[in-house]
Amino acid sequence: MRVNMNHASTSGTKPREVIDALTAFLSGNSHQSAGRGGDEVAAARAALESRIALAKFFGAANPVQVIFTSGATESLNMAIYGLTGAGCHALATSLEHNAVARPLRLLERPGRIEVSWLPCGADGSFDPRSIHQAIRPNTRLLVMTHASNVLGNVLPVAAAFEIAKGYGLFTLLDAAQTAGHIEVKLDKNTDAIAFAGHKGLRGVAGVGGLILSAGVAEKMSLWKAGGTGSHSQSLDMPEFLPDRLEPGTPNLLGIISLGAAVEAIAAAGLETVRRHEKSLVTRFVTGLRQLPLILYGDYDEERWTPVVSLNIPGMDGGLLARRLSDEFGIETRSGLHCSPLAHKTIGTFPQGALRFSLGAETTAREVDYVLEALAKITAGR
Ligand SMILES: Cc1ncc(COP(=O)(O)O)c(C=O)c1O
Questions:
Q1: Rounded to whole angstroms, how far apart are CA atoms 312 and 374?
Q2: Does pLDDT of 30 surpass 50?
Q3: Of 87, 148, 347, 371, whose CB has the highest number of CB atoms within 10 Å?
C-alpha cells in the first residue's frame, strides 16, 4: 500500500475533470499561445474560460483581476516587489514560508526596504493587535500566510487586514495552503491573494496566480516585462490587464488545468471537501494523542487545514520519514518545510519536524494505516 501524506507539498492524483480537460485540449490543439500565431482562438478561449472560473472561485468581480503566474512563489515575488517602493517598511508574520521571507529579504538586504516580523506563539497563535506596535511612518505592506504550512493553523487574517487597512497599508495574502481547502475570497480589506495551482486546488505544477482587487494592479510597480502579443509596437508594457502583468508565453496547459480544477471543487462543494478533510484530521489527531510523540499546534479549535506536524522524542525526523516510506509505503515530509521562521517560532529549529498533510482524496483507511504504522514504530519506546 502506498499512502500519500504529503499533499501540502503537491497534490497527488488529479481530478477526472482536470485530466479530461487537458486530454481534450491536447488532442485538439498543438499550437497553444494566444496572440502569437497557431490556433489563437482556441488558446485564447481556453485561457479566458479558466480566468472566468478562477475569478468566480476567488470572488473577483472581473476576470482581468486574475493574473496567471508560474506559481505562488512567482505571485508573491511580483506582489511584494510591486507593492513596496524604495524606503518602504513591510510587515510579515513569524510563520511565513520562504516564498514570502526570501523575497522580503532580497529587498531588505541591499537596503531597499525594511522588514518587521510580527511574533506568533509556539502554538501558531497570532495576535493581530501586534500590528499597532510595529507600524512606522513608512509602513506600506502587510503580507501574511493564510495558514501555516508547518502547523496547518489558519491565521486571523480578517482582523489583521482590517487593522492594516486602518493604516492605509497594502494587504497581500499567501493562500498557498488554503486555496482548495477552505474558502479564500477577495474582500474589501484584501488587495492581493497569491495561490498555487498544484496543491489544494489539484491542478498541475508550474501554474498559480495572483488575484488583485480592483485598482491595485495600476499601483503595482512592474517586476517583470516582455512580450504579450498585444501593443507590440511599443517598448513599454501595455497598461491594460491582464497583459500588464502577464509577459511571456503562458503555461496554457497549467491554466486549463486550473480552470477545470476549480470547477471540480465547485461541483463537489468546497464545504464537502472541508468536512471530509476535517473529519480525517480529527480522526488522525485523536489517534496521535494516544501515542508517545510530540504534536505541534493547537487542534482544539477549528482553525486548521489538513496539516499535522510531530516529532518522536529521541528519533530523527528524517529517519522516521525513511522508515515510514521504506517499511510502510507512507510518504511524508521531514525537515524545515522551507519555513525556518515557523520552526524557530515553534521551537523545532534546526532539526525540524515530520509533517503529515492530507488531501481531498485521503481516506479514513489510510489515516488508520498511518496510525498503526506510528504505533508500531513507537511501541516499546
Ligand atoms: C505557505 C506557502 N507559501 C508559498 C508556497 C510556495 O508555493 P510554490 O512552491 O507552489 O510556488 C508554499 C509551498 O509549499 C507554501 O506552503
A1: 9
A2: no
A3: 148
What CATH architecture is 16-267? 3-Layer(aba) Sandwich (3.40)
Q: Distance of CA 335 to CAs 332, 348, 356, Å?
A: 10, 9, 12
Take atom 14 of ligand 1 and give the residue whose Cα is closest: 9
How far is ligand 1, taken at its centre, from the CA of residue 151, in Å?
14
Task: Collapse the DSSP code of 329 into the 3-class scheme (helix H, G, I; strand E, B; otherwise coil) and give the result.
Answer: coil
Total residue count of the chain as it appears in this document: 381
What is the helix (H) or strand (E) element at residue 365, kind and residue range? Answer: helix 364-378
> CA-CA distance, 98 to 200, in Å (whole number)?
19
232: CA distance to ligand 1 center in Å?
34
For the domain spanning 3-12+269-378, the CATH number is 3.90.1150.10
Residues touching ligand 1 (Cβ under 6 Å) are 71-73, 97, 99, 145, 149, 174, 176-177, 196, 208
What is the distance in A from the centroid of ligand 1 to the CA of 20? 26
Residue of 199, 258, 337, 343 with the most ligand 1 atoms within 8 Å of its CB, for mutation: 199
